[in-house]
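Second attempt. The first submission of Cloroperoxidase had a stray character pasted in from the spreadsheet, which I only caught after the job came back as garbage. Lesson logged: always re-copy from the clean sequence file. Corrected sequence (256 aa) follows.
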Amino acid sequence: MKFSILSTALVALASANPHHGQWRPAGADDFRGPCPMMNTLANHGFLPHDGRNLTRQAVIDGLGAGLNFNASLASLMFDMAIVVNPEPNATYFTLDQLNQHNVLEHDASLSRTDAYFGNNHIFNASIFATTKKYWTAPILDAKQLANSKLARQIESRAHNPTYTFTSSVEQFSLGEIAAPIIAFGDMQHGKVNRTLVEYFFEHERLPTELGWTRREEVVSIMDILGVTQMISNASSLITGEGRADRRRNLHFGGSH
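This time the job returned cleanly.
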């Protein structure tokens, strides 16, 4: 993956922000996975920079310091991720283990190619360009993010003969799509600055240089569920009137 070269001024700015660890790209021996946010937190040193030995405490500390997630939320996220480590009674996972296909990593990513076509964890500019076509305003809302999710699923299903997207993947995916709003945006109204989101995806770096700072309020599981529900609601292609018409007109006629 290509990363931007930092100027001395940008490094100084990042170091001066108490909520922002100094950014270093992954080295040749460092592990990285399919999740841009986990990679980003490792690049900033909030998680182990080498991408190894992500224990429960390391995840709690890293998500707290980097994004102000509370301990119970971060612990829950650890419980979701630990399944990628095949060792019995594992107490850690690595970012590389997250690359296992159809465990947590899945088809139709916003920024990665499907495993069927090759590398499923390196940022893919062509895939991301497809995603960005559906981000049509400077401020993204749940509908635009949901549109890009749906478009990537359709693209994947049309071209990937092994396309898989289960109901459990759907729930996990909704949380992923909500992540930019949770990390960088307005959780109450479900909006986020498009420039911040693009910068984050393309550089796997927190967008401090663009004016972002870690939110002051602690993020809880209820916040996550609220934004995820916004994305879920926006993912339906049936309008409110359409739902009512369907109940009243149970026939096979009409245009298609």
